[in-house]
Design a protein that fits this description.
The structure is a single chain. By secondary structure, this protein is mostly beta strands. The protein contains one helix and 21 strands. A six-stranded mixed sheet has the order 11-12-13-15-17-19. The chain is elongated and about 65 Å long.
Length: 261
C-alpha cells in the first residue's frame, strides 16, 4: 500500500540476489548496519521505491543493484563504499544528488546511464581514485585515463576536448548528449566503448587519433559494436588508421583531417 516502509530485521548480514527485485509496493526500505553484502539485482526494478537507506559499512554495490529504481529520490551512497558493480546505478531517473564516496576505488562499466534528474554530481574530498570535471560534466579516474560518463545536462557544451592522457572512453559515456557538436580524443587514446556516442543528434565531428585500436567494446573485450547512431556522426581520423578501417567495414561516415588531405 502507499507509504509502505520496510525495515530489515537485525542480525542479518547478507541480502540475497533479487531479494526486492521488481517490488511494486514498498516506498521506503531501511537496511541497518551489520549488513555487509547485498546480492546482484537486489533492488532492481523497484519502480515505486522513493527512499533507500543502506548501511555505511557496506563495501560493494553489486551488479545491477539499483538498476531501474525509477522513483528513487532519497538516497546516498554508503560512506564506506569501495566498489560500484556493473550497472548498479543506471536508470534512476529522479535522483537529484550523487556523491562518490572518497573510499570508492572501483566503478565498473555501464553505470550512470539515464540519470537525467541529477542536479549535482561530486566526488567526496579525499578521493584518490576519481575526479569530476564540473565545467564539462566529466566523471573520470583521478589520472584522467578513463572517462566513465559525461553528465551533459549539467554542463552543456558544443565542443569537448578530452584531456591528455585519456586512454579509455566507457560504453554509453556520451549517450543522449543532445548539445555536443564536436568531441576531440587526445593522441594516445586507445579504446572507445559500445555506443559511447550513441543518440547524439547534433554531433558532427568525432576526432579520433591513430592510437585508437579498440572500438565498440564492452569491458575491454575486442568487438565491432556501434559507437554512433546517426549518419551525421562523422569520424575524423587519419586515412588507414584503425578507426578509418573500422568505419569502412561498418559503414560509419568517416573523413580524413583537413591537414592530412
Amino acid at each position: 500500500s502507499e507509504g509502505t516502509v520496510y525495515t530489515l530485521p537485525a542480525n542479518v548480514s547478507r541480502i540475497e540476489e533479487y531479494a526486492f527485485y521488481g517490488d511494486g509496493e514498498l516506498r521506503e526500505i531501511r537496511i541497518p548496519e551489520g549488513v555487509t553484502e547485498i546480492g546482484d539485482l537486489c533492488f532492481s526494478g523497484d519502480n515505486y521505491l522513493v527512499s533507500l537507506t543502506l548501511p555505511d559499512g557496506l563495501a560493494e554495490l553489486s551488479y545491477g543493484a539499483l538498476e531501474s529504481c525509477y522513483s528513487l529520490l532519497d538516497f546516498d551512497l554508503p560512506k564506506g563504499l569501495k566498489t560500484i558493480g556493473e550497472g548498479a546505478l543506471q536508470a534512476i531517473f529522479y535522483l537529484t544528488h550523487l556523491t562518490i564516496p572518497a573510499g570508492v576505488t572501483d566503478i565498473e562499466q555501464m553505470n550512470f546511464l539515464m540519470m537525467h534528474g541529477l542536479e549535482e554530481v561530486s566526488v567526496a574530498e579525499g578521493s584518490t581514485s576519481f575526479t569530476y570535471d564540473a565545467e564539462n560534466g566529466l566523471l573520470m579516474t583521478a589520472d584522467k585515463a578513463r572517462l566513465l560518463h559525461c553528465f551533459f545536462h549539467l554542463a552543456p557544451q558544443k565542443e569537448i576536448i578530452l584531456p591528455e592522457g585519456m586512454k579509455t572512453i566507457d560504453p554509453f559515456a556520451f549517450h543522449y548528449d543532445v548539445t555536443v557538436e564536436k568531441i576531440v580524443l587526445p593522441e594516445g587514446a586507445e579504446t572507445i566503448g559500445l555506443l559511447a556516442f550513441g543518440i547524439c543528434p547534433k554531433l558532427t565531428e568525432i576526432v579520433i587519433p591513430q592510437s585508437v585500436t579498440a572500438i565498440g567494446t564492452v569491458e575491454g573485450q575486442a568487438g565491432s559494436g556501434s559507437i554512433t547512431s546517426f549518419a551525421q556522426n562523422v569520424l575524423v581520423t587519419p586515412e588507414g588508421s584503425p578507426a578509418w578501417d573500422w568505419a569502412q567495414k561498418t559503414g560509419v561516415t568517416v573523413k580524413a583531417p583537413e591537414t592530412n588531405e
